[in-house]
Amino acid sequence: MSSSSSATSVPHDGTDAEARPLAVAEPSILGLPASFWPRILAPIAVGILVLGLWEFAVRWNEVPAYVLPGPILVGQTLISDWGTLSTSLWVTLRITFMALAAAVVVGVALAVLFNQSKWLEMALLPYAVILQVTPIVAIAPLIIIWAGDINLSLLICAWIVAFFPILSNTILGLNSADHNLINFFQLHGATRWQTLRHLKLPAALPYFLAGLKISGGLALIGAVVAEFVAGTGGSESGLAYRILEAGYQLKIPRVFAALLMISLSGIAIFLATSLISHLLLRRWHESALKREN
Amino acid sequence: MDTAYLSTPHAVRETGAEPLVCVRNVSKQFANGTLAVRDVNLSLGTGEFVSLLGPSGCGKSTLLRMIAGLGSPSTGTIDWPSAGEGMEGKTERDLGFVFQDPTLMPWANALANVMLPLVLKHVPKREAQKRAVEMLALVGLKGFEKSYPRELSGGMKMRVSIARALVMRPKILLMDEPFAALDEITRHRLNDDLLSLWWRERFTAVFVTHSVFESVYLSQRIVVMAARPGRVMADLDVSAPYPRDELFRTSPEYAHLCRLASGKLKEAIGA
Fold it and tell me: Burial, A16: exposed, middle or buried (Cβ in 10 Å; 0-12, 13-18, 19+)?
């Protein structure tokens, strides 16, 4: 047992290797993990049940379509009005994604600035909070007057709603880097930039992604709400205006079809941001970790 | 048993010839008024293995961090006689630091973690990679380059941490209770491997611990410290030769040295 002279270069006897957590292989059905299916099938079953009851209730009580259309009629409207609605969907989505992109850029940039300078943070963060807590419906008319261009004002409104979660989460993430690791960087003479790039930004990534998930939905809500307030018409109008317009004309099935498109877009955005988050974190972060207990 | 022990080659490392670090009259008072360290004088010889032994709150970690340059003394000086003018107080010294926790970057694999000090010093990527791979092999982690910290056991993470501290081939390795959180078996293995690394690489080692047994097993010198305020109570020589192994761990000499150090520690706690 004279291990002191030989142990370093010799392969392990397994003491450490055996203590490693085991990667557990899960049985899969149709290429997806078995535990994944209930998560898809259960909500679908509930959805079908509710839609069925809804259709049945509308038909049984002979509710007129301008009060409450059944799901089948909504589906038919979605197909027949697809031309108009899809153009509007595109307008709304374009504003949503531009606002989200601006929120990411400004949110992360401000968070990094605040992290580098406590003075800037003290001076500016309260205004970011004020921007966040002011109801967007209340300031949207002002923004529309000031911005002049309607698309620009919609973009600004959606951005205001979307950027705060990214800002505040990224600030938290940048400040949550392991203190001993910060010391380690100091010991090795790391510059501010190196500490930011190799330590603080990676440490902030999970927090930023959590903010992105929230902001994705908020950008869509912001884009829709702002358009409701603006109430613009013409060819360049988004889904919110289609809803207003159809409401005035008592085309309630179309209102529902547009609402459905907004909901589906929101769900798609959530799934997309969740997927991005999962792909970026799966190798190392606790949130993406699967445990067998 | 005794004879078997004595038959191992006697090799006492020449130390103390030239001091690497001189701690002179160092005191440290924190902003809240706590006197963490009071009037410590300590000289660390080049190539020496020194343990700082004491109860929690005796300022041994604070002292270690000051030697590393993390936080400066309130009074007194820490000199590096061989460093030359204008080098003291800066972080550019050749030192490696191992924290109580592995303190690895969870988003980077073992190789990238070990490469970090080289990357920060702008060593070309290919060379950095080569040196990191060598260092990982040296701590017994060949084949685990691509593993992420969460895929490694506690002992393996600590090995990565040691590899990262040694990858710059520092003159001095500072360790702050590195094995305190590990189980007994893993700790013994890591103690053995640390000793052979020290024997091979010839760095100066400063090891903070609260374990009498660990300090006797590892070091040539044990500095016993007392708490509130933190101060040096005794400076013991451990004259047993290297390499040390299981035979040493079970020898009467080891037991005797442990009793001695334990007595000093008891005095320090009572003081």
Answer: buried
Please tell me what DSSP assigns to residue A199: I
Distance CA B209, CA B26 (A): 20
Mutate to test the interface with A, among B169, B192, B197, B247 (most CBs of A within 10 A): B192
Taking the CA of residue B4 and the nearest CA in chain A, the distance in Å comes to: 12
Burial class of residue B250 in the structure, from the number of CB atoms within 10 Å of its CB (0-12 exposed, 13-18 middle, 19+ buried): exposed
CB < 8 Å to B185, chain A? 15
The amino acid that residue A63 corresponds to is V
Give the residues of chain B that fall short of pLDDT 70.
1-17, 83-93, 271
Of A233 and A248, the structure prediction assigns the larger pLDDT to A248
Contact indicator for B188, A4 with CB cutoff of 8 Å: no
Beta bridge partners of B156: none
The answer to whether A178 faces chain B, any CB pair under 8 Å, is: yes
Contact A8 B140 (CB under 8 A): yes
CB atoms within 10 A of CB A156: 22
Residue A136 in tokens: 């967007």
Collect all residues with Cβ–Cβ distance below 8 Å to A47 and sequence separation of at least 6. Answer: none
Q: In chain B, whose CA is at the least distance from the CA of A191?
A: B120
- For chain A, positions 97-126, list CB contacts with chain B under 8 A: none
Q: DSSP assignment of A151-196, as one string?
A: HHHHHHHHHHHHHHHHHHHHHHHHHTS-HHHHHHHHHTT--HHHHI
ipTM comes to 0.86
What angle is formed at CA A173 by the lines to CA A170 and CA A178, rounded to 5 degrees?
160
Arithmetic mean of pLDDT over chain B = 85
Looking at residue B91, what is its pLDDT?
41
**Tokens standing for residue B173:** 């390795």
Q: Is A184 on the interface with B (CB under 8 A)?
A: yes
pLDDT tops 80 at residue A289: no
Q: Which of A284, A116, A283, A100 is nearest to A197 (CA)?
A: A116
Question: pLDDT per residue over A145-171, tens digit each?
Answer: 888 888 899 999 999 999 999 999 999
Cα distances (angstroms) measured from residue B106 to each of A241, A284, A285, B179, B197: 48, 6, 7, 19, 25
Q: How many CB atoms lie within 10 A of CB A18?
A: 10
CA pair distance A281, A269, nearest whole angstrom: 18
Contact B119 A198 (CB under 8 A): yes
Q: Closest partner residue to B150 among A2, A184, A284, by Cβ?
A: A284
Tokens of A26: 């899960």
